[in-house]
Design brief:
With 250 residues, this protein is α/β, with parallel strands linked by helices. Helix content is 44%, strand content 14%. The strands form 2 sheets. It has a 4-stranded parallel sheet, with helices on both faces. The chain has a 3-stranded mixed sheet with strand order 5-6-7, with helices on one face. Strand 1, helix 2 and strand 2 form a beta-alpha-beta unit. Helix 2 runs parallel beside helix 3 and helix 2 packs across helix 8.
């Protein structure tokens, strides 16, 4: 397959709607599209699965590159096949979100929808990728063979603050497959993660384990977690009756 450059992509597709998360990939894609003269309209989809800081980061990047964001509010918890949390939850979730986004983009005059999937993403093991394929969503970074490391490097050169932003999966991934997803459970996870952010931890997850919060942090941050043990327990126990530190992950 012939791999084109990102500049060529935007020359050939000069009017596009972007599924914009405020993360590393979609932020660089927004910057690059504007740099190469394309009309790129960013849409942020706000659901119960996205923490507030993601929207704040999206606004910050949009301001930096000089565009306005359209925020679509979608109640994803009305989707039974998402709430029941099966193995392919991501497929059903992405299908609902991107169908809505595609419909809104078309109404705004944008027939091509793009997202930030890059060449490092494994398309064979991600139900969400199947949804994007079925809905004909284009992934310029992937099509142009641009990897995650390259996106970070190019983002740093461009002066985007997202260049070293840790990868972030939606809050639904914190809840075990097969367990019903509720607004209350998502809120507990988000508030617990906000607590750890405020304490200076990065690139971590607070996962639901029965009634407990299971904290996964990088190995280098474990000493700090042990040092702040009492503070972590006091704060997170407001949301979960038990708090566990996973020594095997991340």
């Amino acid at each position: 397959m012939l791999i084109i450059t990102l500049e060529q992509f935007f020359k050939e597709n000069s009017t596009v709607a972007l599924a914009f998360s405020g993360g590393v990939d979609s932020s660089y894609l927004l910057y690059a599209g504007l740099k190469y003269g394309a009309d790129v309209k960013p849409y942020f989809i706000k659901t119960a699965f996205q923490p507030e800081f993601e929207l704040e980061d999206a606004y910050r990047i949009a301001e930096q590159v000089g565009v306005d964001i359209t925020v679509l509010q979608i109640d994803i918890l009305t989707e039974p096949l998402v709430v029941s949390n099966p193995d392919d939850r991501c497929f059903h979730c992405k299908t609902r979100l991107f169908q809505s986004l595609k419909q809104q983009a078309a109404a705004d005059g944008y027939s091509i929808l793009i997202d930030g999937t890059n060449a490092s993403d494994d398309a064979t093991d991600r139900p969400g990728m199947r949804a994007l394929t079925e809905l004909s969503v284009r992934s310029p970074l992937r099509e142009c063979g641009i990897t995650k490391d390259e996106v970070r490097c190019k983002s740093k050169e461009a002066g985007l603050f997202t260049w070293d932003k840790p990868a972030y999966a939606c809050l639904a991934t914190r809840i075990p497959t097969g367990r019903e997803i509720t607004a209350g459970l998502l809120s507990k996870v988000e508030q617990s993660e906000d607590i750890l952010f405020s304490m200076g931890f990065t690139d971590f997850r607070v996962r639901v384990y029965y009634d407990a919060a299971r904290i996964q942090i990088p190995v280098a941050q474990i000493p700090a977690a042990l040092e702040k043990r009492e503070a972590i327990l006091n704060e997170i126990k407001q949301h979960f009756p038990a708090v566990l530190l996973d020594l095997t992950a991340r």
